[in-house]
Amino acid sequence: MNLNKINNILIIRLSSLGDILLTSPLIRSLKNQFPNLKIDFLLREEYKDAIIFNPNINSIIVLSRNNNLDELKSSLISNKYDLIVDLQNNFRSRKISKGISNEILRFRKPSIEKFLLVKFKWNLFKKIIPIPVRYADTIPNFSLDENGLEIFTRNEKLSFDEKIEFNIGFCPGSRHQTKMWKEEYFIELGKMFFADGKNILIFGGKDDKEICERISKQIPNSFNLSNDNELLKTAEEMKKCKVIICNDSGLMHLALSVNVPVVAIFGSTVKEFGFAPYKGKNLVLENNSLSCRPCSHIGLGECPQKHFKCMLDITPQFVFKKTLEFIKQL
Q: Do the domain assignments include residue 254?
């Protein structure tokens, strides 16, 4: 395929937050290498803030829950795309993309490798390939630049005094319980940082409000900055952190998108799946002594073994020590 002959392209990645942020290196690299290329992006409406101000995107097309797919397809056909890059590659994205272009490239998911690693602990991943690189591999003879993730904001007003310095960020939420470090551990860690003279900023979306509030109440002088999924505001406030301590979640990728170092705590998932921190300064903490990891490639509602050692064995004292060492290297 000769990308020099491609004029307009549609990228499809409907969800979720982290997956969409992980497309930013592909979008940037395409635009930098082919400046005249028009890039449209199709995604679910609730995630549009992740790319709404991206200058490399020509047009954002949102899929809402009330969308008529026939009307959407008719609109897409009228755009006469030279190429479709389907990074979602599921039933819905295939249904949408079918017939709207003669050239369709689909992201190859390592589903078999994931299944064998989760179910039988057979690791067929010869090396750890980050998801942005896998996305880029969807396009023949194309490679990414050397930069990391990015998101573009509007300098949203902060919810706290921006003069406050040396902030440590906490992102305690996740969609799945087995990807969440224990709430009481975040509280204990926050108290340790407070005693060390650090300020704690706590981030989360609509589904994280309760846990963020409970944690904030237990940590002196902490700031609960959870909101109703105001992604751009969260991104702007994250910039005030020296480092962010988080789970394997969308907010981990958001922190890296605004060039904030992260300490990521991995429980039921592993780096082989490709969702480890991409580029940027990062430290991944995980319990590699367990034969039961990974128990899922996306996370579960509870530990199948009932012991949850993948998270419980990573103590607040250990994270505190490793984070201070990490900060000294920044």
A: yes
- pLDDT, tens digit (0-9, with 9 covering 90-100), for 236-293: 999 999 999 999 999 999 999 999 999 999 999 999 999 999 999 999 999 999 999 9
Question: SS3 of 186, please?
Answer: helix
Neighbours of 141 (CB within 10 A): 7
> Which among 203, 144, 211, 207 has a CA at the least distance from the CA of 171?
203
**First vs last Cα of the chain: how many Å apart?**
42
Task: For residues 88 and 271, give the distance between their C-alpha atoms in angstroms, rounded to a whole number.
Answer: 20
Alpha-carbon separation of residue 167 from 16, 241, 281 (angstroms): 28, 5, 16
Q: Which structural domain range is residue 31 located in?
A: 3-137
What integer pLDDT is reported at residue 95 of this predicted model?
94
Q: What is the CATH number of the domain that holds 276?
A: 3.40.50.2000
What does DSSP assign to residue 97? H
Q: Cis peptide before 294, with omega less than 30 degrees from 0?
A: yes
| Partners of residue 59 on adjacent β-strands | 40
